[in-house]
Structure formats: structure tokens, C-alpha cells
Amino acid sequence: MTTVFAAAVALTASLTSAVPSSAGTSAPAAERVAARSAERGGPGQPEAHDVVLAVHGGAGTALDPDHTSPAEERAYRAGLTDALRAGQRVLRRGGDSVTAVEAAVRVLEDNELFNAGKGAVFTADAGHELDASIMRGSDQAAGAVAGVRSVRNPVSAARLVMDRTRHVLLAGEGADDFAARAGLPTVTQDYYWTQRRWDQLMAAKEKERGARDGRGGDEGAGAKGADSTKGTVGAVALDGRHHLAAATSTGGMTNKMPGRIGDSPLIGAGTYAKDGTVAASATGHGEVFIRGAATATIAHLMEYSRLGVAQAAHQVLIKQLPQLGGDGGVIALDGKGTFDAPHSSPGMLYGYLTRDGRIITKIFPSESPANE
User: Distance between CA 19 and CA 75 in Å, rounded?
Assistant: First the structure.
């Protein structure tokens, strides 16, 4: 770890903001992207300042501008914006950061465009198993659920685990029963069914059969394939009392083994928050984020090596995790409102809200190119 810290300390950060200009959706795709694109800072440089809330809709899921209609673009941007607005309403009335991230993630869970809640992908046995976690930076309280099958909003179940039990993580039937007894809305498995996710499962199984038969897989899946494997949603927030919070929710990986748990419900892997350091929500190859203790390592680099949030996030996401064999991204926010969203995947869907009310959303690769 000493070597990692020494390499991280060698990075330098400068202050830059990334604020794309607004543009209409009637122009050709390339023009829309160019108009909305913002120049990102270099390695280890923050993307924005005075941020109070940020959300993500998954790494590896950036849309192809040549095959994205204006209507699709509006839908994805609206989904991210609606989530930011939900959290903004909480913060504006003096609410805490935990409630803000829960509100933001609930909106994303209710939107079938994203792989969480309603839009959850299918497991190998054509079921749905959902995971979520939430963490409060002021005292590092945390709650999580894993493998739930009947909770409409897993992030709210995670919040209840944190607030009403002495535990951090509940799984499976026990978590479902706890959420139902607590009065959370429950659903049947068909609630999560969407044609798009079913088609992704069929494509994944065909690719699997091709691999077994020696025919190879379909490498032309593009964004749809990436979307089905690395989709996750999350939020980070900084409230008026300078408290941080983070939350993450996911439907997992398309065609995953029943019972598989990724990083999203694991504190220190997919989610972490500690006042004075960082609130972070990750998305990507879950197994790698678990092995690399991704979000906790960002916080430790900040706390013990005195790195800035962008330096620490870059060190973990771009330098360390790819060496373990996976890619992904993170949204990371410190206690001063400094924000960054580094990712080694081809793209990442995310957006953020500044203190003065500006909302920025990024859905195309040119808006959020992969860090190197």
C-alpha cells in the first residue's frame, strides 16, 4: 500500500470546472453532442466545484450518438434530471444528505431505463434479484439489502436496515420479509419484466451457447451489451450541515448466477461515505470493485495520504482496478463540494447539481470520455 500511496501523492490536482452549454435536441446527433460536451480536466483534476448532489446511471452505458434519437436522448437526460430534482427538493427544504440520496435513487429505481428497481436485468433463471446500500457520513452508519425479489425500492429497504436494525446487511427472503413488515411497497416478479431486459437475457444466453459451441460470442452488442453487464445507479450528496451521504442500487448482471452478489450492497466496495473525506458510489465489474475495496480505498487515500478527491478517485479507478481485470466508474464528492466522475469504461451516464441550481447531465462518450 505504501507504493500505491507514494504513486498517488505524486499526482497533482488543479481546479477546473466542467459546464457544458445547453443545446436543443433537433440538431443532428453529432451537433447535439458537440454542443453539450464539456472539456474534462486532466488526470486527477476535479470535474466541478460547488456540487451538492450527483447521480449516475451506470458505467459502460454511454449512448451511441449515431444511433440515439432525440427522443431517447431526452428520456435519458430527463431520467437523470428527475433524480437530481428529487434530491434537490430535499436539500432545499433543509433535509439531510441521506434523505436526498435516497430520494434521488428511488427515482432511478422507478425508471426502467436504468438497471435498478423497475429496470432490473434478468438472472440466469429468468428471475430478478436486486441489491442496494446507503451510508451516512456523519457517523458512518450504513444499511444494505442483497438478493431481494419483491421490494419495489431496495434503497429504501437499505435505509430501514440502517435506521431500524442493529445490522448492516440483510439478504434474500429475510430482507424481503423485513421490508414488507416495515410497510414498504412490495411487488411481484413480473413488475420488473421489460422487453428490453428480456431481449438482453436472450442475447446473453445465445452468446453463452456460442462460446460453448466454439462459435464465439456476438461482439457487436455495443452499448446494449455493456448496459446489461455494468448497469447500476447511485447518488452522493452534501447537505447544508456539511454532512455527506452515498447510496447505490442495482439489478445486477444479465444472466448472472442466482444468488450472485456484486459490489453495490457492500460498504467500502460499491458505496462509502465519511464526513471529512468523501461520498462515493461506484459502478462497473462488481467482483473487481469488491476485491479492490474501491470506495473505501478512495476515502483512505484522502484521509491518510491527504489526496484530493479527484486524485484519489483517479488512482483507484484508473490505476488500480484495471490491473485487477475490470473497468467501471465512480461519482465522488468531498465535503467542500468538489466533484469528479472518473471511469475506465467507454462511457458513464451521470449528472450533477451545483449549489446555485445548475444541472449538468452526460450520456454520450464525447461528454464523458474514458480516463486514461
Answer: 21
Q: Over the stretch 136-158, which tens digit does the pLDDT of each residue have? A: 999 999 999 999 999 999 999 99
Cβ–Cβ < 8 Å for 178, 168: no
Residues with active-site annotation: 232
The three cell numbers of residue 134 are 446507503
Reading the block at residue 216, the C-alpha cell is 464465439
Residues in Cβ contact with 93 at an 8 Å cutoff, skipping those fewer than 6 apart? none
**Among 304, 344, 342, 305, residue whose Cα is nearest residue 321:** 344
- In a 13 Å sphere around the CA of 227, the CA atoms on its Cβ side amount to 25
Residues in the chain: 372
* Number of Cα atoms under 13 Å in the Cβ half of residue 368: 34
Q: For the beta carbon of residue 240, count every other beta carbon within 10 angstroms.
A: 12
Q: Left, alpha or beta for 175 (phi > 0: left; psi -120 to 50: alpha)?
A: alpha
| Rg, the chain, Cα only | 19
Report the C-alpha gap between 351 and 4 in whole angstroms. Answer: 30
Question: Max CA-CA distance within the chain?
Answer: 59
Of 348, 345, 351, 353, nearest to 364 by C-alpha is 348
Residues linked to residue 178 through DSSP beta bridges, in sequence order: none
For the entire predicted model, the pTM comes to: 0.86
- Segment 281-308 shows an average pLDDT of 96
The alpha carbon dihedral of 97, 102, 108, 111 has a sign of negative
Identify the H or E element spanning 52: strand 51-59
